[in-house]
Queue: 4 jobs
Job 1
Amino acid sequence: YSVLKPYLDFDEKLENLEKFENNIKLRGLDIELPMLITKWQHYKSVKDDIQKLEKERIRITEEVSSVEASSDADKIKSLKFAGVNVREALKTLKMVLSELEEQLYPQVLQLPNEIAENFKDELIYSKDVQEADVEDHIEVGNKLDLLEYISPRLYFLKGAAAVFELAMSNKMANLFINNNFIQFSNPDFTRNSIVECLKLKDIQSLLSLDIIRDDEELDRLHLNGGASVFPFCCYHSKSITNVSALPLQYATKGRHYAESQLPGLYGVWQNTSVQIFIGTTKETINEHLSSTVKLLTDFYATFEIPLRVIYVQPNNLSNCEKMRISFQTFSSFHKQYFELGNLSLYGDYISKRMRMYYSENRVDKFIHVISGTVLKIPPLLASLLEYKRDSTVNNSLLNKDNPE
């Protein structure tokens, strides 16, 4: 497969060093920035030296051609000797550059995205529900014969709960399709090169498989599930989209795999989810973010469960995120909030790594991206079980929507 070489924007980050250092501080990251800057400057110096030698090599080649016509043997010999020295120097410097890239690229790719300027430390939406007797949702589900929970890795939904899983994933997917999103069917596995390139630390694969290719090179595949941002990024990697085709709006329903330490259905390792992807311009990205947040808030507000929509604090963002908005419900039994879905603003952070462009007036620009796992079925089901604990929960789930 073809090589993907990320675009490194370290120079752009260094244009406002104070702002960048504050970004790192707010995120609570431990990055030795002065040492990294020194390495970067050395890397750029080597690249400049290579460019100078390339120009010198071309000059010598052209001069040899012109001197050969005059049959000046001594001059030709001198130029050819100089040409050999330049080629040897180029060979050495290119080896040095390759070693520097191997050391530097992983470190630069770990640098965080800028925190969004419109980030606010406040609630976006909040709704309370009157509490009844506190009881664990697993116990409620067992009493109503709606689920069999063995461990975070192994559980079964039964009866109305199984119908609910199908119905809600269909309903959420159709909500976006009716708002001009294109439905996708994504693969569950992602190549190691893509995972390493994007450095999305918040997305942890549940399983890795090593495959020996025909050329006997080792390739690793990561199990993330179709409800992941990775497949969408791969689809547009190393491509240019005409600005008239924007916004790119995709939705998919599928499996989401991730380890978790949360209790019960709030922390199962495999769940049915809905993932969306929006690719657009810098000028319109905030408009799309606001309209999508409203769409999701209206959806979750229809359920008789506690709900809050918040901005995630910078120290809880992954390196790739400019902003994340979290849709959460409160568990009276566990006395804490659990996430039902999320929406992340990435800006052009992903596009620079995946070379995702759009063309406007013959100028190629990086696509700005919004993506998120907007619905996770098990946490929503857990909250409904906790706040509707009598036998009517069966009818409530069955009548909420019918799977298509």
Job 2
Amino acid sequence: MLQPIVAYYRVSREKQGRSGLGLDGQRRLVSTFAANETMEIAGEFTEVETGKGVDALERRPQLAAALRKAKKLKCPVVVAKLDRLSRDVAFIAGLMAKRVPFIVTELGRDVDPFMLHIYAAVAEKERSVIAERTRLALAEAKHRGKRLGNQRQANVNKAAAAARDAQLEPILKEMWELPLREIAQELTDRGIPAPRGGNWNPMTVMRVMRRLGIPSE
């Protein structure tokens, strides 16, 4: 007879599904583990929520539901990786107090709660070290005058602005003698969106005209 298990999957944000820690990847790991260990998945619970914070369990109703299901079936909750539960030692300790066994596929079925605490402590330390290294690297880059942020996205935004200005230039040249307020109203009436969306206003018109080298009244 196959041993029942409850599977729990978690990503901290929607786009994480594209990575190796995505939901599909977790399902494959748990399914393969269950097949190799003659186990049967009796329930699956999926969550999109961060694992941080002292109130993390309160913000993870699917994990709470998985615990209730496992208690009812008297079976373990299985996760693909320990950090799908948390990297926080206190949080892991709180879960252990629920009297529901946990199995982490990458660690194996025979790892006891004490060892899970040890692994969680190592993961928590690793997270703090990575965070500190990142902070120091960003501070050093800023000190050297390096521009931070997504340069690729900045280039895309710049190209989009240039294309928009090119379309506006002939229109604004036709109306350059009009008061800025009237130009703004005309652009809005024509259904031409302002650079940041919505209606035009005199200040926005003036900025665009200056950028294009068009004199304004």
Job 3
Amino acid sequence: FDREIDIGVPDETGRLEILRIHTKNMKLAEDVDLQKVAHDTHGYVGADLAQLATEAGLQCLREKMDVIDIEDETIDAAILDSMAVTNDHFQTALGQTNPSSLRETVVEVPNVQWEDIGGLEDVKKSLQEMILYPLDHPDKYVKFGLNPSHGVLFYGPPGCGKTLMAKAIATECSSNFISVKGPELLTMWFGESEANVREIFDKAR
């Protein structure tokens, strides 16, 4: 081919438009914020968002299975009126779906708080300033012309709390956590280990 068109992963605006398309025929409760769902689904493509919307609808349906007779060809109108997809349904669906690009990678949503980490107060403060402040106060960074950090490298001996600290940051940011062991990247073939590292970073982005 003499032309290549890269169809990439949609950004937050694109994800919001896709979610609106897949939920336009769904009855959504007032607490559903599609903007927040779009924000929380970084890395999701159109098919992933369609699956997410379907799973949220199924969660709503499962709650009414005790009052629905599946052998009947129709469902009572009163039951249909009482059914609406809520924010809880979407949150449950988020926990059961992953972006297509990460399905071969072990992804977890950690639940580690700062209080779970003893000591390292200076490190905690530095991480909050480098990672959390730009996310919580982006307007101030724009106002003062500051550029947030693009990445942080932890180093230290085994068992000193590097992984736990990364999980705490992921918890604070409500982000996925991808754990990769060194031996998983190493191979006997020339150049393949480097390619594995690049692939991991591409998936993380």
Job 4
Amino acid sequence: MPELGYWAIRGLAEPIRLLLVHTGTPFTDKRYELQGGPPERWSAAEWTSVKETMGMEFPNLPYFIDGDVKISQSNAILRYIATKHDLVGKTPVEMANCYQMQDVAMDLRNAMIKVFYAPQDAYEAMKESFLSTQLPAMLSRLETCTEKHGWFCGASLTFVDFALFELFDQLIRFSPKTMHKFPAILKFHAKFPHVSPQVEQYIASPKHTALAINNKMANFL
């Protein structure tokens, strides 16, 4: 059975979990925990003690093991699963659009992470700047895209929609006031859970709802 390994949070792995659930792929959901914490340093020993024993060229979290295939990096894992299940576009142009949109999604996530894990003394100022300027600019283009296409890479569902759903879900929890200015994104967010019965069930289950979004040292969990 394939194994997905990641921290016991949503983070980078939740779009992968959603994609595996949607495609009906049984998998072991290996979740690693940070230990310790303030006033001591957080310890990643549960992961670092085994990472070099797993036979991966570039061991990292998340990782995905599927028989002889052992890969890390969330984008590579999403593409691998999507390619197996025809969720990556049907032509070279469609595939290129998917890869472009995946990088756009990662740009958005990286901007979010800078705020979520900001130093505590800088958090409020960074949050205000992000919500007032950077985030609206990024969401405006995504709003136009989903208004035009329905899904983010055209008329059909692709793996990119799984990544963007998770980011939008986090942002709705982080700043609902900001997100309510983007009705097309909210419409996408509302329809996505219904892409399959298994995704709808997973999103409503404790496997999803009980997980923190970020790790224990973050400002926004």
